[in-house]
Automatic annotation (TrEMBL):
Protein name: UDP-2,3-diacetamido-2,3-dideoxy-D-glucuronate 2-epimerase
Assigned protein family: Belongs to the UDP-N-acetylglucosamine 2-epimerase family.
Gene Ontology MF terms: isomerase activity
Domain of life where this protein originates: Bacteria
UniProt KW keywords: Isomerase
Source species of the chain: Thermaurantimonas aggregans
InterPro entries in UniProt: UDP_GlcNAc_Epimerase_2_dom, WecB-like
Pfam families in UniProt: Epimerase_2
Domain spans labelled UDP-N-acetylglucosamine 2-epimerase: 29-357
PANTHER family to which the protein is assigned, alphabetical: UDP-N-ACETYLGLUCOSAMINE 2-EPIMERASE
Length: 364
């Protein structure tokens, strides 16, 4: 008989990857995990593929809420999660990262006086126009147990006065590192993406693009597309494209010369990361994964939450202008930073999280 029930709320692609690592660790504890999928991401290649490949326990509840404005999406999720809280009566609710599903889970729980556990707490871009920054700041503030991946994240919470709140902050390392280490061993045997796309190891650039600030601003989107088009003349650029960006590119009739493919599963993504020569992205997760696979990264934004990557010379913030992207590319290809540093832990963040949750719940 498991002695405490944790309700995990997830809904977007990066959360499946983070949850996969933590769920594996929770299986080795006395905690029962019940998963709620909000439905925020719903295409097979944005959702189910991760459950299948990564053996994530199937969601017990599916809310099927997606493709709405921020308020409508978050509001409906809160209502749906609240109903599940009434029936499941968990000891705690666990949320990951910074999406609308994260905030909805945290708000539904705290209003029912259910403790909130936030995995990937303390990250900040200091740009409150980003929906993710709003989600992170608010989620952290209502959480009781905050798991920080980096020293910078712990410091951000201290700067905001969290030390004076009745909460617990634990520096664990990054669960995405745990996931990359574990699943790469499987990916090597299962992925055929390089052969399928006829890609030569070390001879292509991997790019992703989906951030609202880029897709919803025509000038920025055009600049990034132009930058990638020009880069593609020097080195093939492969882009597994988020459905949001695909829709916008179609609407804006932009000429694309680089190689767009459907979003890929995690195994294929790990093989692309392992074999590319450089990563260009506005994704949060991919910036770290570039580092895990010892690849330089160009970030298509003006700021990042993963400041240690920029400070260490692994990541260049290039923004959206083609000449800045090309300049960053030249610089990154000639730069050889020391990738042996251990910025994101030892691959045991999920174990640390599982133990800390047990300790937290057993003392109540
Ligand atoms: C969300 C997160 C973002 C995260 C990203 C990961 C918020 C505010 N944003 O952004 O932080 O980096 O997920 O990928 O929570 N769509 C599909 N099929 C899908 C999923 C989405 O067509 O499977 C379409 C939706 O219909 C919608 C658009 O993409 O029109 C945007 O989806 P949404 O979940 O609102 O935001 P993301 O850009 O995916
Ligand atoms: N990812 C994937 N397939 C793709 C694109 C991304 O498996 O086609 C993985 C990627 O390797 C990382 C996670 O999804 O683990 C990042 O998610 P995303 O970029 O959507 O969100 P963010 O990290 O920006 O919130």
């Amino acid at each position: 008989m498991k002695n405490h029930k944790i309700l995990t709320v997830l809904g977007a692609r990066p959360q499946f990857i983070k949850a996969a690592a933590v769920s594996r660790a929770l299986l080795r504890t006395d905690l029962e995990e019940i998963i709620v999928h909000t439905g925020q991401h719903f295409d097979e290649k944005m959702s189910e593929v991760f459950f299948r490949e990564m053996d994530i326990p199937m969601p017990a509840h599916r809310l099927e809420i997606h493709s709405l404005t921020h308020g409508a999406m978050t509001g409906r999720m809160i209502e749906g999660i609240e109903n599940i809280l009434f029936s499941e009566k968990p000891s705690a609710v666990m949320v990951f990262g910074d999406t609308n599903s994260t905030l909805a889970g945290a708000l539904a729980a705290v209003k029912q006086h259910v403790p909130v556990i936030h995995v990937e707490a303390g990250l900040r871009s200091f740009n409150m126009r980003m929906p993710e920054e709003v989600n992170r700041v608010l989620t952290d503030r209502v959480s009781s147990l905050l798991f920080c991946p980096t020293d910078a994240a712990v410091q951000n919470l201290k700067n905001e006065g969290f030390e004076h709140f009745p909460i617990k902050i634990v520096r664990t390392g990054d669960v995405m590192y745990d996931a990359a280490l574990y699943y790469f061993q499987k990916a090597k045997h299962h992925s055929t993406i390089l052969q399928k796309l006829r890609l030569e190891p070390g001879k292509f650039a991997l790019a992703t693009l989906h951030r609202q600030e880029n897709t919803d601003n025509p000038e920025r989107l055009k600049g990034i597309v132009e930058g990638l088009n020009q880069l593609h003349k020097q080195k093939p650029v492969v882009v597994p494209l988020h459905p949001r960006t695909r829709k916008t590119l179609e609407n804006q009739n932009l000429t694309v010369d680089f190689h767009i493919i459907e979003p890929v599963g995690y195994f294929d993504m790990l093989m692309l990361l392992h074999n590319c020569s450089i990563v260009l992205t506005d994704s949060g997760g991919l910036q770290k994964e570039a580092f895990f696979f010892k690849k330089p990264c160009i970030t298509l934004r003006e700021e990042t939450e993963w400041v240690e990557l920029v400070e260490g010379g692994y990541n260049t913030l290039a923004g959206w202008q083609p000449q800045h992207i090309l300049h960053a590319f030249e610089k990154s290809m000639s730069n050889q930073p020391d990738f042996s540093k251990n910025l994101y832990g030892q691959g045991d963040a999920s174990e640390k999280i599982a133990s800390a949750i047990q300790e937290f719940l057993l003392k109540d």
